[in-house]
User: Fold these one by one.
Assistant:
Number 1:
Amino acid sequence: MSLYRNTVWFLNGIHYYTRKGYEAAAKDFESQHLNVSVVGRSFMITGANSGIGKATAMAIAKRGGTVHMVCRNRDRAEEAREDIIYESGNTEVYAHIVDMSETRKVKEFAEDFKMQYSSLNVLINNAGCMVHKRELSADGLEKNFATNTMGVYVLTQALIPLLQKSRDPRVITVSSGGMLVQKLRVDDLQSDKGHFDGVMVYAQNKRQQVVLTQQWAKANPLIHFSVMHPGWVDTPAVATSMPQFHQMMGDRLRSVEQGADTVVWLALCRVSARSRSGQFFQDRCPVPAHLPLAWTHSSPEDVQRFMSQLETLAKAILSQPEEEHNSPMSATRPQFV
Ligand SMILES: NC(=O)c1ccc[n+]([C@@H]2O[C@H](COP(=O)([O-])OP(=O)(O)OC[C@H]3O[C@@H](n4cnc5c(N)ncnc54)[C@H](O)[C@@H]3O)[C@@H](O)[C@H]2O)c1
């Protein structure tokens, strides 16, 4: 089955996810959709110092939006912030330093943000990683899961009350077409059973983001949720995490602006928010979140089990006493399985 899924996915990718795929899709784009001013609206973008996140931040800043960049490294964040201010002429660009793999820090940041700001119109969960060796976060979670799933879950959950108070609120999560080869697995969220394959763990996390988006959409009708695939894009993440793929695809990879296009469209365009909440997008269109005949649909019980496990894990981490959390053992000990 996984050979079938991988083959269909790759053939799909060569056709649709490349630069040529973007150019073909873009022939149907309405050019005036992004001809908007978003002065007075605020946007939070994780991983905004590089690749798709930076291109998204730039596009929003150029249209007058207030941009909150959430980045791991202060120097890289400041450098990107200066570029965005210089090129867009918009000074409403702020850098917040948070490591999205550190669940407690993510929660602290979100709570501080809610105290400091009275509104947030759009949250863009873009930061992501593909770590090939099994490593644990400061909270004892497997690193890919901590960043791609738990970080997204805790940040979004914590900001939902603020988003709900704001006008035309939206949450966009940058997933990956790679998730199409994965069925949601609920028995090994920490990937500590059997052989560890970072590419498959990443793809599983990206499937989890799609499931989360569907569940959030059901539970929060006041907010428009979407999740998307940017295509295959020439970014530092692809160059470093998948060097062979990067080399093989070369010029066929999309530019960062092409990869960011659907994120920007989902974040800014009036029409995009009229679509049903909770859908998976590619090149400005909702597309199926499953390959045909791939048996990747989950039962409602599995989805429920996944959501309860996330909630339980988050509660366990966030209720840990500070001393225990800071103990040298906490970074190496698998506390949650
Ligand atoms: N490039 C592609 O072909 C492609 C394809 C599918 C999905 N994506 C997704 O697009 C998103 C953006 O990636 P990109 O390709 O632009 O790569 P990138 O390396 O340019 O950007 C990733 C960003 O995430 C940030 N990040 C990673 N771990 C973090 C952490 N723990 N805390 C805070 N920030 C963290 C990085 O610092 C960087 O700013 C990711 O979610 C990725 O999975 C990319």
Note: The chain has one domain: 2-24+37-331.
Number 2:
Amino acid sequence: MSLSEDSTARRRALRREMASRRMALGEAAHARLSGQIVEILRSTLPRPEICAFCWPIKNEPDVRAIVGDWVEQGTRAALPVVIDEAAPLRFRAWHGQSVLQADRYGIPTPVDGDWLVPDLILLPLNGFDAAGYRLGYGGGYFDRTLATLRPRPLTVGVGFEINRVDSIHPESHDQRLDWIVTEAGAFRPGD
Ligand SMILES: Nc1nc2c(c(=O)[nH]1)N(C=O)[C@@H](CNc1ccc(C(=O)N[C@@H](CCC(=O)O)C(=O)O)cc1)CN2
Ligand SMILES: Nc1ncnc2c1ncn2[C@@H]1O[C@H](COP(=O)(O)OP(=O)(O)OP(=O)(O)O)[C@@H](O)[C@H]1O
């Protein structure tokens, strides 16, 4: 097996393992952990002008409560839209009445709304390490997106401690996050 085949297989196995750890959380535990993350986000981050977040899938942290609070205070919220497998994501305005439709991966996605450029991205962490690297679902979407956004938005990974690993063995395209927030606290990787 070549080196790159080996790391691809290792990443694939790790992606599955990370999601299955979350799927084993009960509903009450998931809600409690998400609530703790929301409180830490609230006390750590300034309210953004335009906040991108993700509609939770596969038992990802649910941070919709803080997005809703920020929207009441004047923030505009946006959800990612997959345009093409090889393209960066784009972000479409979301509000409480937005119509969402499952995209090619089954992720609820706005069917209309303004295209926005976020100054803050709340990014779910399928897996992560203390150096600030994220493991997603293998599409490379966020890395491609961050590589093109100027100025770079503040990137805040939101995850559960059960998805922390020693190292995700970052590759050259992997982008480091500015903050990682879990139920255990807010961390600035590299500090
Ligand atoms: N809730 C949520 N929405 C999100 C993201 C996210 O991480 N979470 N994304 C963050 O970027 C984008 C979607 N990224 C995705 C990337 C891959 C797959 C997927 O199903 N991949 C296949 C395997 C592909 C492979 O290994 O090559 C799979 O899991 O079966 C799904 C979503 C945009 N929306
Ligand atoms: N900046 C980039 N330009 C071109 N291709 C990229 C870039 N970033 C990532 N990719 C491609 O995407 C593939 C998957 O990347 P990776 O395994 O890091 O995905 P991921 O972060 O888990 O996915 P996602 O963000 O969609 O959840 C890489 O093998 C690479 O080919």
Note: The domain at 3-187 is CATH 3.40.50.10420 (Rossmann fold).
